[in-house]
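Design a sequence for this backbone.
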């Protein structure tokens, strides 16, 4: 991808955003290079010149999406925060900042989560396994879980929050085709507000009284 990364940043973003939008709306199988070229405002030969195949382009967009999410978390105030629930709140706010920079980022990641194309399956399993590993490390190695009541399993709390997020992702996946970026942005804001309220409720019920 050296030829692509030698382009001006504005041109790179133009192509990334165009491809991300088409893959998000149609999934891998039904995304056509001609549509991506149209949304990216470049020629189809230009896409093939820089990426070779649609699959290579898809994986580049996928790697970019995950990299930008991870980079949004690679900030000192997140890793300095050791409280379980406070860290979740801070990381959520930073992730939303990254999502707002690219209107189709959340739509793309949601579509990827439900992607069934066999060409994608191996990479999908790798990313899901890596995400699970990072969550486990965060809970058991990085965060202070001593504030929980003895009857509460922090891993189960994290799993519950993950399932809550999956439920919202399913709603996004079903409705995003007919939703504008503005409507989805409003939906994400609502989701975040409800998530933060959920965190406060769990903290109140799961933490020892002296930590409230």
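Sequence:
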């Amino acid at each position: 991808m050296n030829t692509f990364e030698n382009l001006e940043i504005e041109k790179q973003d133009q192509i990334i955003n165009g491809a991300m939008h088409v893959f998000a709306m149609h999934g891998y199988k039904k995304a056509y290079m001609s549509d991506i070229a149209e949304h990216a405002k470049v020629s189809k030969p230009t896409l093939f010149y820089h990426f070779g195949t649609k699959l290579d382009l898809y994986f580049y967009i996928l790697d970019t999406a995950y990299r930008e999410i991870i980079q949004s978390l690679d900030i000192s105030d997140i890793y300095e925060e050791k409280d379980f629930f406070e860290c979740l709140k801070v990381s959520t706010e930073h992730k939303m900042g990254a999502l707002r920079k690219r209107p189709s980022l959340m739509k793309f990641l949601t579509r990827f989560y439900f992607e069934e194309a066999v060409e994608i399956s191996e990479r999908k399993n790798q990313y899901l396994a890596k995400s699970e590993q990072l969550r486990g490390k965060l809970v058991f190695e990085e965060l202070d879980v001593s504030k929980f009541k003895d009857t509460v399993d922090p891993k189960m709390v994290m799993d519950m929050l993950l399932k809550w997020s999956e439920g919202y992702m399913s709603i996004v996946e079903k409705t995003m085709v007919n939703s504008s970026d503005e409507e989805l942005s409003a939906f994400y804001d609502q989701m975040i507000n409800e998530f933060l309220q959920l965190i406060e409720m769990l903290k109140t019920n799961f933490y020892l009284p002296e930590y409230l």
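The chain has a mean pLDDT of 85.
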